[in-house]
């Protein structure tokens, strides 16, 4: 595996639309993206704008995924990761999360924390979060609608700059409910 990252250029709207429409994205709110929707997302600046940056994830030069960084003007940016079905389960996700974490903390000195959310049943992504030093911070019941009309629980993870620098994960204080 020879994973690299390359920023999406403005001239790549065609390949981006093809990438988004050629796969099923089972753990995204829109699991099957049509060309019209993908084109609208590109036009709106969802992938490239002052607040958003996107990067191709490549293995030996071939695009296998896409990293989208969002809310870059905020101290707590978010990210989205899409990997082609054929490239899931090979460790690419862990490499991508390590890369984007380092990129955000090094490129944006005001970033204090990075957040990501996934569906509860996306066990592979949840393992990637934990192995990458992210702590589970939230569990949102029935918060993630799916294209089949169902809803799933969503799970939120984050990494703090201080944890990334120290290599130690500080977990939230979960048992802090006031006693009546």
Principal-axis shape:
globular
> Strands of the biggest beta sheet: in what spatial order?
1-2-3-4
Instruction: Return the structural class.
Output: alpha+beta
C-alpha end-to-end distance: 55 Å
Percent range for helical residues? Answer: 25-40%
Which CATH first-tier class would you pick? Alpha Beta
The low-pLDDT segments are none
* Integer tally of domains: 1
Q: What is the makeup of the main sheet?
A: 4 strands, antiparallel
Approximately how much beta-strand content do the residues carry?
25-35%
The run of helices and strands is EHHEEEHEHEEH
Roughly what is the average pLDDT, rounded to an integer?
A: 93
Q: So, CATH architecture?
A: 3-Layer(aba) Sandwich
- The CATH homologous superfamily is named Gcn5-related N-acetyltransferase (GNAT)
Number of strands: 7
What is the oligomer described by this structure? single chain
Pfam families: Acetyltransf_3 (PF13302)
Domain N-acetyltransferase: 17-162
GO molecular function: transferase activity
InterPro entries: Acyl_CoA_acyltransferase (IPR016181), GNAT_dom (IPR000182), Ribosomal_N-acetyltransferase (IPR051908)
């Amino acid at each position: 595996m020879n994973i690299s990252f390359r920023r999406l250029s403005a001239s790549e709207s065609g390949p981006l639309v093809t990438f988004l429409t050629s796969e099923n994205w089972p753990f995204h709110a829109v699991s099957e993206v049509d060309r019209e929707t993908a084109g609208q997302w590109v036009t709106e600046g969802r992938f490239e704008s002052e607040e958003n940056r996107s990067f191709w994830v490549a293995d030996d030069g071939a695009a296998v995924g896409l990293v989208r960084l969002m809310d870059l003007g905020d101290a707590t940016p978010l990210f989205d990761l899409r990997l082609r079905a054929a490239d899931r389960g090979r460790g690419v996700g862990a490499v991508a999360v390590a890369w984007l974490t380092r990129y955000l903390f090094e490129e944006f000195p005001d970033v204090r924390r990075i957040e990501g959310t996934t569906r509860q049943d996306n066990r592979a992504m949840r393992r990637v979060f934990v192995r990458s030093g992210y702590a589970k911070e939230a569990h949102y019941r029935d918060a993630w609608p799916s294209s089949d009309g169902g809803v799933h629980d969503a799970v939120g993870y984050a990494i703090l700059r201080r944890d990334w620098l120290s290599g130690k994960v500080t977990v939230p204080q979960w048992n802090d409910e006031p006693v009546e």
